[in-house]
Amino acid sequence: MKPRLPSVLFALALAAASASHVQASPAEHDIAAFVRSEMRERQIPGLQLTVIQRGKVMLKRNFGLASLQYQVPVTDASLFSINSATKAFAGVAVLQLVQQGKIDLAAPIGQYLTGLPVAWQTVTVTQLLNHTSGLPDVLDQRSGKLVGPQPDAADAAWTAVQALPVEAAPGQRFRYNQTNYVLLAQLIERQGGQPFTTFVQRGQFDVAGMRHSGFGDAKDVVVGKASSYVLDRGGNGYRNVIEDFPVFMRAGAGINSNAGELANWLIALQSGRLLAPASVARLWQPTSLNDGKPAPWALGWPSIGRDGHRAVAGIGGARSAFYVYPDDGLTVIILSNLAGGQPEQLIDTVAGFYLPALRQQRGGAYAAHLLRNKAASTGFNGLDNKLAAIRRQHGLSAPTEDDLNAWGYRLLGRQQPKQAVAVFELGVQLYPQGANGHDSLAEAYEADGAKAQAVTHYRRSLELDPGNTHAVARLRALASD
Q: What is the CATH number of domain 363-480?
């Protein structure tokens, strides 16, 4: 049986979550309304939100259900898997050892670890942290399994990956890669003199007062752990996610925590209790490729690149995320129990309630939220005019192409092709040179039975992106009908 989240139960859960916050400020009320709306739109069962400003927790809220099966609400004590956001802790651990003079970020990994393939030995510690090593991945991204003939055998996988050729010269390009963090765990254990998980427990969890946080996956009994879900195909129900974080890969994923304890950790990090201020600045400093172009990651933390209001992040499993805005003294944490819910897409909007300039710059997601509400009450005709009125009233930027694309595909998944056409048409109007937007609009027209319009936009997508193989395949299929 594939459980669905009954709408009445979902509404009651969200209402219960807000019952103790009747004195919320207008901004907090608007934030909660935005989060609830996004949870309904994305079908996220449960979520925690915490906002920190200048070292003080300003907002702490829980929404929805930690368990659909047992109808358990999310509380402050609920623990969520943070998946690959664990890499941020690995970054802190490396910098702690740098402070102690035990690691040099510019040194090759072969200086510390023996027995590695010759081609691996020149990769620097920084290149492991920022995913520019060029090494083969121990995790097969297509199957989600370990490489090698025994997909669940750690030792066999580690032997197999070392026999694979390198994919690029160190520092030549960025590629997200779990091998990097397996090596970093080995480095931390060797230079720190204790298992990686123990090093993090003693050097970070204990110092920051994270009494309930720890490492574990579906094989472990984790008290208070929120169940993890993924939407069934078509978004018509949920399936349980069986989390598998092999022990040798725990520097890359495996921490369970809650928003309150992550807030303690981030406050401790920024107040000098985990690292000296200069080391924190180095941790979050942008890195570069060999050609001088910026790399997408700092040291264990993704860099959110843009003009002004820079951020560094921890993002895991498309279900848990935190953004730190170092120059603005702001941090936003959102944890959820839906893989694919992408709460990181909500963070700038929440931050915008505390940073008006950021809201003007990155307010498109909130504009899309308000437009979605308007369309639900007044229909999908004239979305361009409705959006223009919303932007004038609230001083918001336009939704991004991705904002509109995601909305349109959710409508398609709910078998609402006419509404999807309206949303994709708005996207093409706002971003006429976007090949992906025309391709998406063509899909919606095709789903609505409008073959001629579909062909027109598939062709336009191909003009803008001659490498669009999806458009080629669909045009061929439509021509044969």
A: 1.25.40.10
